[in-house]
Amino acid sequence: MAAPETPHDYCPTCGAGYEPLQEYCLECGTRLPTNRGVVGFLAREWQRRIPWYPGDWIWPVLLFLVLTIVATAAAVAASASRDTKAATIVATEPNVPVGPGVTRATVPTIPQANTLPTAPAPTITNGTLPQAPGAPSTSSVTTPTPTNPNALTVWPAGKNGWTNVLESLPTTAGRANATARARAAKRAGLPAVGVLVSSQYSSLHPGYYVVFSGVYATQNQASAAVSSAHSNGFPDAYQTRVTR
After folding, report:
1. Sign of dihedral through CA atoms 172, 177, 181, 182?
2. Neighbouring residues of 2: CB distance < 8 A, sequence distance ≥ 6
3. Across the strands, what pairs with 240?
4. Structure-model confidence comparison of residues 52 and 197, the more confident one
5. Containing H/E element for 76?
6. Three-state secondary structure readout of 160-207
7. How far apart are CA 152 and CA 228, in angstroms?
8. Is the pTM of this model over 0.90?
9. At a CB cut-off of 8 Å and minimum separation 6, what does 210 contact?
10. What is the bridge-based pairing of β-strands 161-170 and 208-216?
11. Which residue, 92, 30, 77, 32, is CA-closest to 56?
12. Torsion sign over Cα 168, 172, 173, 174
């Protein structure tokens, strides 16, 4: 009797051998690979040497890996070639013998920047400019300083005196309200209108913005002006002393 033929292929699931034209494994029932061509040849060769076969997907992955390695190696080689070509080339004078009567060519020397002529510095005269005939002298002309007609009066620093308090607004109401009332008093024609912060003066009760009118040296001067505040929309105005 003839000896049974040794199987050439093995089941990828259980490792049992099978014939070339067998479709299902007789041990586990797995459908056997029937690929032909290059993939089928590679699959059979794998299974003849290693019982475990991951599947046909392994071949595209291996091909992609090989292509990646080859492309990387080519890129590294190209980069190294560019670096070699980019090396600095130093020009040197060739050792060519010169015969009798032949003059070696020379390169003209470019003059340095510091040898160029320097432009003369401008001369500035600090004298008095000439005046046109009949024009007034600049030393005798005084330009008045423009003043802001809407500016409020600031109480002179370090001065103690008397004033007329038009209104006292709590600081919680905001300085804008006190400034608006002061401008209304200024539009009404009251003199030297401004705003004081009461906490900065010992003679005033702290916690208020004080709208005042006038900076007077004596109580009588302040008393004479308080009636004008009453008649211009501030009936509660009163005179008081302002001290630091």
Report:
1. positive
2. none
3. 163
4. 197
5. helix 58-85
6. CEEEEEEEEEEHHHCHHHHHHHHHHHHHCCCCCEEEEEHHHCCCCCCC
7. 18
8. no
9. 165, 167, 168, 178, 195, 196, 197, 198, 204
10. antiparallel
11. 32
12. positive
Domain boundaries, the chain: 9-53, 161-242
Nearest-angstrom CA–CA distance, 19 and 26: 11
Q: How far apart are CA 142 and CA 119, in angstroms?
A: 41
Contact 57, 50 (CB under 8 A): no
Average pLDDT score over residue span 131-151: 57
DSSP states of 81-118? HHHHHTSPPPP--------TTPPPP-PPPPPPGGGSPP
Beta bridge partners of 163: 240
Q: CA neighbours within 13 Å on the CB side: how many for 10?
A: 16
Q: Could you tell me the two tokens for 94? A: 């060739």
- CATH code for 161-242? 3.30.70.1070
Burial of 178 (0-12, 13-18, 19+ CB in 10 A): buried
Q: Is 139 a residue whose pLDDT tops 50?
A: no
